[in-house]
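YM 10:42: NAD(P)/FAD-dependent oxidoreductase sequence, as discussed on the call
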Amino acid sequence: MNEGTSIRKVDALIVGAGFGGIAALRTLHGELGLDAIVIEKGSGIGGTWFWNRYPGALSDTESFMYQLPFEHELYQRTEWNTRYVQAPDIRRYLEDAVDHFDLRSRFQLETEMRAATFDEASQTWLIHTDKGDFEARFLITALGLLSRMNVPNFPGLDQFQGRIVHTAAWPEDLDLAGQRIGVIGNGSTGVQFMTEAAKTAGHLTSFQRTPQYSVPARNRSWTPEELAAFKATCQDRWDEFSRVKLGFGINEENERKTFSVSEEEREAIYEWAWNKGGPYTFCNETFSDLTTDRAANEEAANFIRRKISSIVNDPETARKLTPWEMFARRPICDSGYFEIFNQPNVSLVSLRDTPITHFTENGLVTSDGQLHELDVLVLATGFDAQDGSYRGLDITGRDGRTLNEHWSEGPRSHMGITVNGFPNMFMVLGPCGPFVNLPPAIGVQAKWIGRAIASLVDIPAASIELTAESEEAWLQTCRNALQGSLYLETGSWLFGNNIPGKRQVTPSNFFVAGLDSFIATANTEADNDFPSYHVHVPSTA
Ligand code: N01
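YM 10:58: structure's back
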């Protein structure tokens, strides 16, 4: 703790000013009337959308489902004019939400949490930040699922004299027009970035390790009639998400199996999805077995492979862009990604064929000896996801046990919210939470946290803690739901495979049984007075 400085006491300290922090603040301050504040490392509100300002950043969820849930007032004010929303619009929306609910004074920006320790005597959390210390009865960590950048350790990277930027720390002053840009990473971020940057780059080179499947986004403006209809039916739509698996705003009732239809019909269905656009349309509105049946997966993968070869003019470039692994990562959509490789100012280097050997002051050298001269290197290399957001923090719970010790075999939690040994600490989007559209998940978790805290506020100094048995049972629930998922077999950030040395345990870090099932579990727990929890009431209370 900071010596000699005063400690600010609050009922609840929320860490992170993205969707999660704002939703938690709305519940804890707006509904329960607690003295709750949000601290945030960045200089503005928006979380993920504050940091990821790279050109082309876009949400790929149907926009009417990409909002703070349960905020019907906001829904009526918000003019989401397009099918998918761009990062600046999302930042404006969250800023507006904060002002609309008169919450601005509850945010302390440019304040980074460094450590948090549970004090058993007072049953409170002592939180250490770079701007002073806090004492809070409740600690809510809304750190984001994807917030800790992955910066690979390329040999000689520090020699490079050009600009190096990670897409999740995008600088305001970078003008890419006319520049020689090298991009490492072609996940959702890299694909969005390259498609946009190729419009003005002097030359853009994609240094690609693994080719990925991508389908057209087909972003477009909503018609005034569509917009009016969304507003008129907003209550129904939000109610609907408690009955669906993913909550991305598409039709998820599809039970059709890939091989239940003829080849011609199958092709027509893929073609319909390709033309409608959107990753979840392609993966969830076509057939129901894409992520569980290897042959079905291969059928969809082949369709996209054929599309790539029909779009990309140069056969060798098309070959390099064509994925061979299963179509089982977090799906991607684009606004003309494969098309940019037909432009004279865009080229592709397959790092499978010619890996990077080292950097020089002018660029990078690949194993064929070629020096690729660059002005700007863009690292679209993703994140140390989920528990990665927590690993750099010093969080100590009951009995002096740290979170890193508790998670030494991999992250553990209940519903991505609570952890055994960490009383009165609640995560938003922590590990072992639902794999769904995030705003609905955030809303459900924030409401649940509100109910758990409401059950305690009248008992002075009481704390609530997940039992060890319930934590283990939840991991088993997550493991069971993951059985048979092809996602498990294809390495990606979803299971930590993207971070060298990240410990692999029996994967249980996502709950994939669906939003409907998650909501039912959360409600059952709260309706039955939190049977998975122990409430500790100090004898003096
Ligand atoms: O990160 P990623 P992301 N050498 O991990 C490459 C969400 N999101 O930021 O495939 C060379 O997917 C790596 O290569 P490989 C969304 O959930 C949403 O793109 O491991 N390359 C890969 O190409 C998404 O899934 C939206 O071989 C290296 C890339 O870097 C998640 O964020 C938009 C490397 C990382 O891809 C993460 O997406 C953007 C190395 N040493 C993001 N290390 C929307 O809503 C890594 N790579 C649309």
